[in-house]
Specification:
Domain 2, N(10)-formyltetrahydrofolate synthetase; 3 domains; 35% helix
Length: 562
């Protein structure tokens, strides 16, 4: 009688793992007790003094991990990131990991946490996926403090002549809550404030999150906060945080949150986890401070960018890489057989079935993402992130497809085997770094008009045939150029499930139209957001939220977290 082995859940694996004191992990990368600000025994922030001292050191090689367009459950990009860092250390390389902090929205919603999975996780998984060191709460507080100060300014005489119909700053909450997308505030009479329409963004869509993740230090954070646009006055001129005079107060609220968090993997690889903007509605990368610090502390840094190469990787390379000289040496493109089968026409409930025909059909999605990375002049390796439902025949088929196309590929089994399952990928990367020349270049020059930059992203990265603009977006293009914002990079807000702006168009759609419905200036962050399709900056919960399965036992251990 064949008995199926019991497969432990991510949280069961995490809770069964033994962590080392974070001071011991810090020693591995040359840090001492004075370099750390402890949050208990297993978490710490790097001190401001340490961050300053690291800036003069030489930088290690940065490896960017991205993926194909994912299924709603995700394709294990964080898992591969963790496993690859562990694998580098297993083969004698000094490596670190730099990742984003999870948002409670997807954690309590459908996707779950963002600490990796199986035996490739960062720990303490429960803390990181919930409140961690309070960074996201600090960002939420700063965001809402600014909102309160704006409304108080209206109430107290409105010396800046802010047009309350043109206030663009929204409140924020780090949860999925569709009921808060549009609200009316200030009702109840003269003492309750100025009545107006308002709304909430999820915290990771707040410009303050983007600002914190792109700031180089505390002073730069303050300068960026001061540049943020909060409203327009009756003359239709922008009003900034600096005009309101509260950038100092916001910086004060964020002075601890700006410091990156040091934790460890199951295999005790050091990891900096800091910042967490979504890639479908923001720029999708962990903080510049964390990535830069990791590159000074290790010879190899494995970092990730959210969702597929059409979103997170494009923004990493066009936005983040222009900051502080962060240039990647190579890219890992995570592909899963289940996602390729979905792009090949299989329904979500059929992805567990063997189907090499659908797999071959969906291969076109992977090829497009490879072409995107090649357009940036970067060497790459495709990582086949194997799931237990993948058949040997399907794995062989995908390897053959890659081989026939001359695509470097490595089978990755880090969920099941931890760092050992990523050694082939690590060795293939080292081989590629030796053989392939890095000719990294940005996709566009900042001097180009905004419209040209949008068109280059839509056509070269997405494969669109044409870009169309709403009447509002056309007017905004003219206005933004006229006030001097034309030299900023573009941050596209687009569905993660498709190369197009329609989540139903899977595979590699061609000759489609990208529609820009609105532009938003994120001047503090230093980019212009272009909103496409129906992308929401405040997501909603699914019919059966993950929160329904969560609990805590009598000892305070989390249950149902994944």
């Amino acid at each position: 009688m064949n008995v199926k082995p019991v497969v432990k859940s991510d949280i069961e694996i995490a809770q069964a793992s033994t962590m080392k004191p974070i001071a011991e992990i810090a020693e591995k990368i040359g840090l001492q007790d004075d370099d750390l600000e402890l949050f208990g025994k297993y978490k710490a922030k790097l001190s401001t003094k340490t961050l300053k001292n690291l800036k003069t050191k030489e930088s290690g090689k940065i490896i960017l991990v991205t993926s194909i367009n994912p299924t709603p459950a995700g394709e294990g990009k964080s898992t591969v990131t963790v496993g690859l860092g562990d694998a580098f250390n297993r083969i004698g390389k000094k490596a670190m990991i730099a990742m984003r902090e999870p948002s409670l929205g997807p954690t309590m919603g459908i996707k779950g946490g963002a600490t990796g999975g199986g035996y490739s996780q960062v720990l303490p998984m429960e803390d990181i996926n919930l409140h961690f060191t309070g960074d996201l709460h600090a960002i939420t507080t700063a965001n809402n403090a600014l909102a309160a100060l704006i409304d108080n300014h209206l109430q107290q005489g409105n010396q800046l002549s802010i047009d309350h119909r043109r206030i663009v700053w929204k409140r924020a909450l780090d949860l999925n809550d569709r009921a808060l997308r549009k609200v009316v505030i200030g009702l109840g009479g003269a003492f309750q404030g100025v009545p107006r329409e308002d709304g909430f963004d999820i915290t990771v869509a707040s410009e303050i999150m983007a600002v914190l993740c792109l700031a180089s230090d505390l002073q730069n954070l303050k300068e960026r906060l001061g540049r943020m646009i909060i409203a327009y006055n009756y003359e239709k001129q922008p009003v900034t945080v600096a005009d309101l005079g509260v950038e100092g107060a916001l910086t004060l609220l964020l002075k601890e949150a700006v410091k990156p968090n040091l934790v460890q993997t199951i295999e005790h690889t050091p990891a900096l986890i800091h910042g967490g903007p979504f890639a479908n509605i923001a720029h999708g990368c962990n903080s510049v401070i964390a990535t830069t610090a990791a590159s000074k502390l290790a010879d190899y840094v494995v970092t990730e960018a959210g969702f597929g190469a059409d979103l997170g990787a494009e923004k990493f390379l066009n936005i983040k890489a222009r900051t502080e000289g962060i240039d990647p040496e190579a890219v890992v493109i995570v592909a899963t057989i289940r996602a390729l089968k979905m792009h090949g026409g299989l329904a979500k409930n059929e992805l567990g079935k063997e189907d090499t025909v659908a797999l071959a059909s969906g291969f076109s999605n992977l090829k497009k993402h490879i072409e995107t990375i090649e357009s940036f002049g970067l060497p790459y390796v495709v990582a086949i992130n194997r799931f237990t439902s993948d058949s040997e025949n399907e794995v062989r088929t995908l390897k053959d497809l890659c081989s026939q196309a001359g695509i470097p590929v490595a089978l990755t089994e880090v969920w099941e085997k931890g760092g050992e399952g990523g050694i082939k990928l690590a060795e293939k990367l080292l081989e590629i770094l030796e053989e392939k020349e890095n000719k990294f270049t940005h996709l566009y020059e900042l001097s180009l008009p905004l419209e040209d930059k949008i068109q280059m992203i839509a056509q070269k990265v997405y494969g669109a045939g044409k870009v169309e603009y709403s009447t509002k977006a056309k007017k905004q293009l003219q206005d933004f150029e006229s006030v001097g914002w034309g030299g900023l990079p573009i941050c596209m807000a687009k569905t993660q499930y498709s190369l197009s702006d329609d989540p139903a168009k899977l595979g590699r759609p061609k000759d489609f139209i990208i529609t820009i419905r609105e532009l938003k200036p994120s001047i503090g962050a230093g980019f212009i957001v272009a909103l496409t399709g129906d992308v929401m900056t405040m997501p909603g919960l699914p019919k059966a939220p993950a929160a329904m399965n969560m609990d805590v036992d009598e000892e305070g251990n989390a249950l149902g977290l994944f």
